[in-house]
Amino acid sequence: MADEVKVADKTETVESLRKIDDNLRLPSVPEKRVFPKEIDVSAARMQTPAVGQRATRPDGRMHGLGQTKYIDDMFFPGMIHAKIKRAGIAHAKIKSIDVSEAEKMPGVMATLIGSEIPVNSFGPSLQDQPLLADDVVRHAGDGVAAVAAVTEQQALDALEKIKIVYEELPNVFDPVEAMKDDAYKIHNNESNIYASKTIMKGDVEKGFADSDFIFERTFTTQMVEHVPMEPHASIGEWDANGRVTLHSSLGRITLGRADISRTLEMPINRIRIIATVVGGNFGGKNEITTEPIVALLSKKTGRPVKCVFTREDEFISSTTRHPFVMEYKTGMSKEGKIMARKVRLICDGGAYCSWSETTLGKACILSAGPYNIENLHVDAYAVYTTKTMTGAMRGFGAPQVCFAYESHMDDMAAELGIEPLEIRLKNAFNEGSASPTGQVLEAVVVKDSLEMATERFGWKEWRK
Amino acid sequence: MTDVTLIVNGETKTASVPPETTLLKMLREDLNYTGSKLGCDVGDCGACTVLVDGLAVNACLMLAGQAEGKEILTIEGLSTLEKYHPIQKAFEDVAALQCGFCGPGMIMTTKALIDQDEDVTRQNIKDALSGNLCRCTGYTKIIEGVIDAYQEITGKKLPEIKPRAA
Fold it and tell me: Are the beta carbons of A61 and B39 separated by less than 8 Å?
């Protein structure tokens, strides 16, 4: 009898203790992961013949279950949040930055301004871009100061207390204006043109003289933002050995590592980057943005620091697709053969160089299109303006010129009364044609593709 | 700080949060349901979609306090330890998700659509997904996934669209 009571007491006590424990631990216990213990391999992943079968992705299951950990889904013990203040003014000299009020705000643990960054410049071809502007602001999305605080809201509140005195400088928004000699020099260079390329083939003037018709038109394209679903994000942790570990949404971590090593003035072996699943890149996450900033804020506070771009940051401060101004002049024979073409490309590079040089090169080579042109002259310029900087984005300049040369082709076909397909077939590359830069092409199927495609989607019927 | 109690995926959860906390922030940071994503924070992208009492809601636009006592279903609440949810399976099989960031929102919207228990057309699916943005897929595969899941769950067939004559 006595024993039974003891056992009952014991069970009850243990139960009640367990309950207290449960109550105490809720809700700080990390949520258990609920996903099926065993899932059959998707039929599509078992297949061996690949053609004609459904394709799946190896990470698709994790994405669908919500188990994929992007940067913003990671939390480290003691982690704090950083936010960056944007200039909000297109072009100005910074007279002073006062962060003392921001540092007094509740929850704020550290601030960072450009002059505290060891080497405040980076860039893939020209190192002309500061991480946080310390001297001159060159576009409205330039970061000027960063704050690390316990919560994101506290960091955002503290940003409003940062006092910056600006002295406005003239704005240069139009790339054509920016090329002129009397335009304000944004980077104190001799000219706002920082890259130029030329392709010359045959004799253009003679080609125009031999032509029956000459067509001229200027095409422009606009700036395009990548808008990845996941904003740029990174987490930095500076450790006691003077090494820094960065979790980052960068798409090109090796390049990023070199840039971080340069900006932090640290040997590259002390920098460890852990690349996570990227929630959309499209070229926009090829360069460092917040990484050295979180590293330095982590050094100051001794805690892991996370920085996630707001959607506004994403639009105004990350890179975009280059707007182009494309002047085309083409000489045509009566039969619809291109005799000569002169192209002038102006690439609006925005405030910093980034990947403009690469983009310009590719646009330049592709600007004549997949057509045999004996006499060609292409001039291309990349120009600084006081707008959001432009960088890598799917195609690197190819979509812009494609829009121009194909529109130009349609215009000419309409003017000459030749079928648009016909005029393309007349001029398109054949086996052994050379590209404008002299590369001899093999396995050329432009004409076959055009013919087959038009047949399949009913081009001839549609033309009737 | 206010105490907010939610019924998340069938379990009652309480957390003490500042009054300006959104439902999304509370789910992600206080309750560790990180499946719902923060994409734009202004209700445009739909990556944060969860079901509140069966309705698809942008969790970034709803304050945690407004959801007090309500039943919330997040992406973590679909599959159980025993069963893989047909929507998630359909999305995996057709490779509807590439970077996957929009996925949880897309799947929750799909769940709300199928739960309505009405006949669905391709246009209904497009309308339902209009609040969810995706930058990778071009939506084709996602719509295919929704159709597969709808047919699997309801046993109904979607009206066929006749291909345009060549």
Answer: no
